[in-house]
Specification:
single chain, 297 residues, alpha+beta, Alpha-Beta Plaits, four-stranded antiparallel sheet, 8% strand, membrane
Length: 297
C-alpha cells in the first residue's frame, strides 16, 4: 500500500478550498503567460543574433572611388581577379551601377540614374570563415592594388544592431529568471498559508501516524495541479500570441526580421515551460512544508 493510499480519503483534499484554488490557478496562469512570452522573446533574439553572426562575420564590401570611370572599372577588374585567387574568399561580385542607383534613390532621387554622376564602385566579398587575420589580409591585398580603396566589414557597422539584439536576449532571459523566482515565492506563500489554515487537520494526520513527508506530498500534489492547470491556460494564450507575432514577422518580408522566426526546437522549449514550472513548484512546496513541520516539532 502506498503512502498516499495510507492517508484517510478526506485528507487528500487538504488544499481544495475553492476560492484559494481558483486564485492560485489564475496567479499561475499569469506567471506562465508572461514567462512564455519572455522566453519567446529571448529565443527569437538569440536566433537572430546567431544568424547575424553567421551571415555577417565574413562579409565585406570594397569601395573604390574615382572620377575616371575607365580607370575605376580597371581597378575593379584587378581587385576581383586577385580576390578570386584567394582561398579564403568564397564569393566576389561587383555591384551593378543600376543596383547602386536604386539603393541611393531615396536620397538622390532620379539624379542617381544620371550616367555622368560620379559614383563609387562597390564589390561584395564573402570570406570562408571571417577570421580577423583573413579580413586584414584581404584588406591589405585590396589596398595594395588600389591605395585609396576602402574595405568595410558588415559586422562592424551592424554592431549597434547586434548589441540591441543581445540586449533583447538578456532581457528575455532575465524576465524568465525573475518569473521563476516570483513563482517560487508564490508557492512558498501558498504552502505556508495552507499549513496555517489546516493546522488542526495536520495534527490529526500526525496522530493517525502520517509522516511529514506524507503531509508534504498532499501539498505538492495540490500545488502541482494548480500550477499545471494555470500553466496550461497561460501557455495556450502566450503560444497563440507568439504565433500571431511570428506570422506578422513572416509577412514583413524583411531579411533581418525573418531571422527571429522560431524553429520547432524553440516551440518545444516554450511548450515545456509549464511542466518545468510545475516540477519546480512541487520541489519548492515539498521542501518548504517538510522544513516548516520539522521546525515546529
Amino acid at each position: 500500500m502506498s503512502d498516499m493510499e495510507a492517508l484517510p480519503t478526506p485528507s487528500r483534499h487538504l488544499l481544495d478550498d475553492g476560492r484559494r484554488t481558483r486564485a492560485m490557478v489564475w496567479i499561475m496562469a499569469i506567471m506562465i503567460f508572461l514567462t512564455v512570452l519572455a522566453a519567446a522573446l529571448g529565443l527569437g533574439a538569440a536566433r537572430s543574433a546567431g544568424s547575424l553572426d553567421r551571415e555577417l562575420a565574413g562579409r565585406l564590401t570594397v569601395q573604390i572611388i574615382g572620377a575616371d570611370k575607365d580607370a575605376q572599372q580597371a581597378s575593379v577588374a584587378k581587385v576581383v581577379a586577385a580576390l578570386r585567387k584567394d582561398p579564403a574568399v568564397t564569393r566576389v561580385a561587383p555591384v551593378d551601377r543600376a543596383r547602386l542607383a536604386k539603393l541611393l534613390k531615396p536620397w538622390l532621387g532620379d539624379a542617381g540614374l544620371d550616367p555622368d554622376l560620379p559614383m563609387p564602385a562597390m564589390i561584395d566579398v564573402d570570406l570562408r570563415h571571417g577570421d580577423t587575420a583573413d579580413v586584414a589580409r584581404v584588406t591589405a591585398q585590396v589596398q595594395a592594388i588600389v591605395p585609396g580603396a576602402q574595405v568595410d566589414r558588415h559586422a562592424r557597422w551592424l554592431a549597434p544592431v547586434r548589441g540591441f539584439i543581445t540586449t533583447l536576449w538578456l532581457l528575455g532571459a532575465g524576465l524568465v529568471a525573475l518569473m521563476a523566482v516570483a513563482t517560487t515565492a508564490v508557492v512558498l506563500l501558498a504552502a505556508r498559508s495552507g499549513l496555517d489554515t489546516h493546522r488542526d487537520t495536520i495534527d490529526v494526520l500526525h496522530m493517525l501516524g502520517s509522516t511529514d513527508v506524507q503531509v508534504a506530498r498532499l501539498f505538492q500534489r495540490r500545488i502541482a495541479l494548480d500550477t499545471l492547470t494555470g500553466g496550461a491556460i497561460g501557455a495556450v494564450g502566450a503560444l497563440a500570441l507568439t504565433a500571431f507575432f511570428q506570422a506578422r514577422l513572416a509577412m514583413l518580408g524583411s531579411q533581418m526580421m525573418n531571422t527571429m522566426v522560431l524553429t520547432p526546437a524553440d516551440w518545444a522549449i516554450l511548450v515545456a515551460v509549464p511542466f518545468v514550472f510545475a516540477l519546480m513548484a512541487m520541489a519548492a512546496a515539498r521542501l518548504s512544508v517538510v522544513r516548516t513541520l520539522k521546525s515546529q516539532l
